[in-house]
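Hi support team,

I submitted a single chain yesterday and got back a structure, but I'm not sure I'm reading the token output correctly. Could someone confirm the output below corresponds to the sequence I sent? I've pasted both exactly as they appear in my results page.

Thanks,
R.
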Amino acid sequence: NSRGASSLLKDSIPVTEFSASGPFEGHDLLRRGFTSVKSELLPSHPLELSEKNFQLTQDKTNFATLRNIQGIHAPLKLQMEFRAVKQVERLPFLHSSNMALDILRGNDECISFEDILNDPSQSEVMGEPHMMMEYKLGLL
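Hi R., thanks for writing in. Yes, this is the structure output for that exact sequence:
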């Protein structure tokens, strides 16, 4: 064969063309989670966005109050502690209770829905640990 190695590389088909895409693509539960037809068909309730952002709004209100009472150093210190606590995480396939974050927010002495019936967004099915770690590290 008189063709060189460079022409062989030009003629090769990229691996991305072999991936399934289009209407017959398989749904990847590990990366995308479960599909919900209900969320695609029905519009969300007006209060749903407010409920999703409740903790953020609560934190902003608490920081503003703290700033007015103690000065700017207090909310800045608390925000640094929040960031430090959020950076500490468990392996992706293990559920974390975020106890340190609850203590900083003052929710450690409150009994809420999640304490009794668990968070509805948390699935009881644990994924495969090796696949989840490879996805988190970018190996997949």
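A quick pointer for reading it: Residues 1-10, 12-18 have pLDDT under 50 and may be disordered. Let us know if anything else looks off.

Best,
Support desk
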